[in-house]
Amino acid sequence: MTVVNREKCSECGSRDMDEDEARGEFVCNGCGLVQEDKAIDINHPQGRVGEGAHNTALRNDVGGNKLGSVIDRGEARKLGKSNLTRTAVRAHAVKNQRAKDIMREIERLTDSKATQDAAKALLNTGFVNDNSVHLSADDLGPKPGNQMRFMHQESKNATYVIRCSAIATMMVLSDIGSIPYRIWKVDARANGIDENDCLKAKRIIRSRLDRTVLKGLTGLKVIRNPAMLRRRALDAWSERLRLWVHAQGISGAQQFLDWVEEKRKKLDMDGDGRLGQENADMLMAMIATVALSELGISEVTKRAIAEDVFMLTVGGVNARLKQTRSHIEDSES
Question: Which residues partner with 25 through β-bridges?
């Protein structure tokens, strides 16, 4: 192939193209889209003959994706499966297969009907190109508008991207209050997904959602009260701590939990307290860590509190405690 500089890609706007003279194709290096409508694939693996034979492609022509999505041609080329014609790529894209794969992954992660319905609405907003068409919950739209290409560039396969996108979708829904607060790190770690990838994907989805909400083009329920959102987050972490403490069979468990809860209320005050600027997980981790020493509990370690309950590093919690411990110890009981 030779690199050419021609008109912009109709998909991503890039001018960086590869020209395959044998096939008569121009392929965008930015997103992998074939730019020529009449490109003919003379090496199609099905070996069919006759009119339109080269336009027929099986979904499993693109390997390496256990969840079955084949809409990303750039990914297909990396896998050495670049012999799909533009017609075949378009046929798959019309089905919005990536968004449907993400939806199936969300259904695997949660059996909550409310969460699934909210996810469909968000996928309709975040993974289609045309926001002017308001689609029903059963029709996720004509084409994904975002395929998280930053992960493809890091050689993450389609299964990984879909699972990360599913987790990020629920992160956004949790952040805006459309679903109960979700401790997303549990999902990420259980599925081997890098937490930084989840955060990047969340920012991308949230950015698109914010623009759409401003236009009034989404039916999602959005909570705009920061204090309410913060209470939901703190309540979720409090419940996780409660379940963990009782599972450990700690003596004086209720006294410990009551101490933590009292400190939380006084130090946070719906975000207006002395430590109201701390992230919900970090605030709870710091209070619980101080509670161990204040109440003389030796059955569990600070590391267990930080890592097992709040999924933070013990070093990170200790570093914050150097600046905040006096506030926790001195707050009125």
Answer: 20
The answer to whether residue 221 is domain-embedded is no
| Residue with the two structure tokens 């050689």 | 155
How many CB atoms within 10 Å of residue 64?
13
Question: Can you give the pTM of this predicted structure?
Answer: 0.70
- Same domain assignment for residues 230 and 286: yes
pLDDT of 56-91, one tens digit each? 332 333 333 444 444 455 555 655 555 555 555 555
Lowest average pLDDT, out of 76-80, 88-92, 160-164, 201-205, goes to 88-92
* Position 177 in a domain: yes
Q: Are both 47 and 75 inside the same structural domain? A: yes
- What average pLDDT does range 305-317 have in this prediction? 97
Same domain, 24 and 126: no
pLDDT, tens digit, for every residue of 109-134? 999 999 999 998 888 776 665 544 45
Instruction: Clarify whether residues 90 and 129 are in a common domain.
Output: no
Query: Residue 312's CB: how many other CB atoms inside 10 A?
Result: 19
Neighbours of 63 (CB within 10 A): 12
DSSP states along 164-213: HHHHHHHHHHHHTTSSS---HHHHHHHTT--HHHHHHHHHHHHHHHHHHH
Q: Which amino acid belongs to residue 8?
A: K
* Tokens (6 digits) for 306: 């930080």
